[in-house]
Design goal:
It is built from 1 helix and 13 strands, in the order ββαβββββββββββ. By secondary structure, the protein is mainly β. It has one domain (about 15-125, about 135-150): Jelly Rolls (Sandwich). A 6-stranded antiparallel beta sheet has the order 1-2-3-10-5-8. It has a 3-stranded antiparallel beta sheet with strand order 7-6-9, with no helix packed on it. It has a two-stranded antiparallel ribbon with strand order 4-11. Strand 6 and strand 7 (about 85-90) form a beta hairpin.
């Protein structure tokens, strides 16, 4: 079989991105998390689609909510714990969750199982969107040089 040509994509050929844009001490909390940016590989510009593999003990993000961005996750395999303002619930393969922009329901996924979980995360890209982290001392600040991570009192993370 020949490799697919755009608009078709073989996800296994899309580069795996490890790590996080969070500063320490938050970055290491993500654990063993990889993303394949399928939307970017397809040339999409208005919304993102990531194929995420979340290892045992890893988390999708810091618990957060967005002012404008809608987010959606669909679990392909394994099991994750969705933690939101409503509490905790387990999501297994075939289950999904959506987070409308502007709703102050902070959320994230944590893998408390002994095996990796895989899911799709989908979100629109809206200029001017902000994310808020009620459990952590983090905010993003727009500067002339770009967006930087700062403490909630405005001090920059180094």
């Amino acid at each position: 079989m020949n490799p697919p040509k755009l608009p078709a994509i073989d996800p296994s050929t899309v580069e795996e991105v490890r790590g996080s844009g969070y500063p320490e001490p938050f970055r290491s909390r993500m654990g063993d998390r990889t993303k394949r940016r399928l939307g970017e590989a397809a040339g999409l510009t208005r919304f993102g689609v990531n194929l995420v593999t979340l290892g045992p003990g890893g988390q999708s993000a810091l618990r957060h909510w967005h002012t404008l961005e809608d987010e959606f996750v669909y679990v392909l395999s394994g099991e994750v714990v969705l933690i939101s303002d409503e509490g905790e619930q387990i999501l297994g393969a075939g289950m999904c969750a959506g987070y409308p922009g502007g709703q102050r329901n902070a959320h994230h996924l944590v893998n408390r199982s002994a095996t990796a979980a895989r899911y799709l995360e989908i979100g629109n890209r809206i200029e001017g969107d902000n994310a808020f982290y009620p459990d952590d001392d983090l905010l993003w600040v727009e500067t002339e040089g770009g967006t930087i991570a700062a403490h909630k009192d405005g001090r920059r993370y180094e």
